[in-house]
Amino acid sequence: MDKLSFLSNADSRYIDSIYESYKNDPESVDFGWQKFFEGFDFGSSQGTGNAETPEHILKEINVLNMINGYRERGHLFTKTNPVRERRQYFPGKELATFGLDESDMDTVFNAGVEVGLGPAKLRDIRQLIEDTYCDTIGAEFKYIRHPEKIAWLQSRMEGERNEPNFDLETKKRMLQKLNEAVVFENFLGTKFLGQKRFSLEGAESLIPALDSVIQKGADLGIEEFVIGMAHRGRLNVLANILGKTYETLFNEFEGKTTEDTEFGGDVKYHLGFSTDVTTANDKKVHLSLCPNPSHLETVNPVVEGIVRSKIDMKYDGQSSKIAPILIHGDAAIAGQGIVYEVIQMSKLSGYKTGGTIHVVINNQVGFTTNYKDARSSTYCTDIAKITLSPVFHVNGDDVEALVYAINMAVEYRQKYHTDVFIDMLCYRRYGHNEADEPKFTQPLLYKAIEKHLNPREIYNKKLLEQGSVDASLAKEMEKNFRALLQDRLDESKDDEVISDVNPMYSGAWSGLRKAKYEDIFVPADTAVSEKDFIKIAKEITQLPKDKKFFRKIERLFVERRKMVENKTFDWAMAEQMAYGTLLNEGKRVRISGQDVERGTFSHRHAVLTLEDSEEEYMPLAQLNGGKAKFDIYNSHLSEYGVLGFEYGYALANPHSLTIWEAQFGDFVNGAQIIIDQYIVSSEAKWRRSNGLVMLLPHGYEGQGPEHSSARVERFLELCAENNIQVANCTTPASFFHILRRQLHRDFRKPLVVFTPKSLLRHPAVVSKLEEFTKGKFQEVLDDTYVRSANVERVLFCTGKVYYDLLEKQQKDKRKDVAIVRVEQLYPIPMDKLRAIKTKYKNAEEFLWVQEEPENMGAWPYICRKLRKSRITLEVICRKEGSSPATGYQKQHIAQQLVIVEKAFETTAGKEVKEKIKKTTKEAAKVD
What we know:
Layout: H1 12-24, H2 31-37, H3 42-45, H4 54-73, E1 108-109, E2 120-121, H5 122-133, E3 137-140, H6 147-160, H7 168-191, H8 206-219, E4 224-229, H9 234-240, H10 246-253, E5 273-278, E6 284-289, H11 299-313, E7 322-329, H12 330-335, H13 337-343, E8 357-362, E9 365-366, E10 369-370, H14 371-374, E11 391-395, H15 399-416, E12 420-425, H16 443-451, H17 455-466, H18 473-492, H19 530-540, H20 551-566, E13 568-569, H21 571-584, E14 588-593, E15 608-609, E16 616-617, H22 623-626, E17 630-634, H23 640-652, E18 656-661, H24 672-679, H25 682-686, E19 693-697, H26 712-717, E20 725-727, H27 732-741, E21 751-755, E22 767-768, H28 769-773, E23 780-781, E24 793-797, H29 801-811, E25 817-822, E26 824-826, H30 830-839, E27 845-853, H31 859-868, E28 874-878, H32 889-903, H33 913-926
Parallel strand pairs: 4-6, 4-7, 7-8, 8-12, 11-12, 14-17, 14-18, 18-19, 19-21, 20-21, 24-25, 24-27, 27-28
Antiparallel strand pairs: 1-2, 3-11, 5-6, 9-10, 13-22, 15-16, 20-26, 23-25
Helix pairs in contact: 2-4, 4-5, 7-8, 7-17, 7-18, 8-15, 10-18, 11-23, 19-21, 21-27, 23-24, 32-33
């Protein structure tokens, strides 16, 4: 193995040649030579003092390489698997691997200095690194490219040989937490036989580990932890870490409902909880466990968003006061792409949270899938290498080693503000759920597990052997705790309903309330005084004269200043004014998404890069004397992760306008899990409101299937129980008011806005000053061009197609056709639609016009809703399709022309019927 082993008789000329290579590039020589030339008696080998022999020098190098070999590969030879033999790796850690043998064991080597021993026998050097890197803790860290971090980890681990040295009280506390974890699971299994609980059994050491994280973290300045995990072990964590009462948990097992009959709830092992705890050192820590659906790892970005929000709002940018903890399963962390998306956020300025503590409950099986079939990587945690984060692999049966490692992880996080991973090798005592038979698929493994002692029994035995505790202590702990659980179970039987132990409208949400259906239609006061509006508009359109901007940017801002003078504003300026007026009121605005700083369609330009440098300038951030809390970030190329993050951000602070924008609305497909599991259902499942805004560019401009549709129909089919708001605005003022409305009501609802593309520069898409200063958001915009008595046909529509219809109406002077815009699709403004129907009582036809195919867009929803209200509509649109749009420009134009022509095919339009027939035939040919 050792390429130098044959050079035992090498002379100093060879060493001199290595030294020359080292001087030119230290990385070009082996680790041992690097360390040697850094100062290991090189001077003596050059003829000063008692010269060492070349053979001994090479042995010194070999010892240094051995030390480095253990640091790099020692984790492959650890005792970390409690129920399986580890795979064998070659070459191993035999002396011969490093060019050494038994005859060298009592030789003194200066290389001992490298591990803090000073000159020492090889026997002692080897024992130290064997203890440190090959016992029940394995460490992966040598890929980190930061010498200080590597040195800190080496010193920390080698200085203590990775051997815990806890005092008696700490040991008793670990035993107590293990007792709670083990007895709790056993109690549930016997009292609620056959019910799913996704037991922690086999991984009970997680409870003392989390308990220690809180104790250690508090001592290091952490005031709050936000935890995300899937279902396995959640009930145990809720009870024995967060202190959710056993009585409440037992009520949930009994299937009792809450006092709020409108609250549908979720299964008990998905629910969240928050509380305050006091540590042994009398420090108060706030703990939150986020609710999570069965979509494993979905909670990860939500946790990170919550933490970042609190860093920004509550902790004045200090990430050392709050920390995220993400608890993964081994199959999930290896298999779920969202893990990668979130880890890639960890060092990005818009998303970093000061480092996440990742804990993997490594059961070595995913449902029924063996680990060998669950990943290609050596470890499930190999994704940690992406961000150069250290990983500690720990035997889950060794509770002291686990607590020791996780304490070190918290220290590392607090010192270096980066992610750190704990891979807890354990097992799952039963099947995926308690009704499963795991022997169907893992017979040999489960034969071993059946005979295996649980972590509490193993630790109690260890303490007894040490003489640390009395033989009766563990039995007394179990007896007392089991009696406590029985008392709480008896008490729970008297409860008829479950009370809300975590009210939504408290803390940051104090002063807000749950909205009723009718509340949505109460106009919010979103108008801004003309004086303030003009003042802000002038401020954000004035570029500093001492900075050099691109000419196109300067021209753009000249055009924006002209809008102020002309008191007429386009879409981009209206959006800027919505943000500017909120910032002027002391609110916070945060926007993120792909290319949002400039805007995908080059309309926003919220961040300006100077022509001759990388310096950036944000006009909106200059408001309030440069103190405006305006944040806008180009995200990495992620929808799922970033939308989840922004949902979490908005969840933690309802007083920030938090916006996620899709590059094209179509791309929201990639975030569907967040939409389904959090945005549209969290009030019903978890009693958690949210004011997140989603901006989804939508509209048919002939750009093909992936750049046309934000899938309006999908959002509308998810609308129920007043859960979200869906809008498709057609005027800049409408967009302005609906954005401001988010923060000008005493409740919060997610808002989905289908935003335009071509309309961003359409000359007709402008709003007058008075529409901002005296107006409000209107759910329906009636036709102001026609007189109702003369109208034969009424066209209802939403969004961009309105301007196609308007062009036809104005060109042909068609006052017999009224065009009515539905700006808010949900909650549907039914009273206003009925009023429109009454107003146009002479009309013979009422039609819905849309660009989307008949099975898409708003039509399926509108048809269903209006049918129930006895308003009969027919539809004009593209024919049903499996793809949202054509990719051929000529076909698109023909289809669009057919839609518009059909919309105006009334009795008064007989003279154009022949033209329409001809157009239809041409379109059919193209189809």
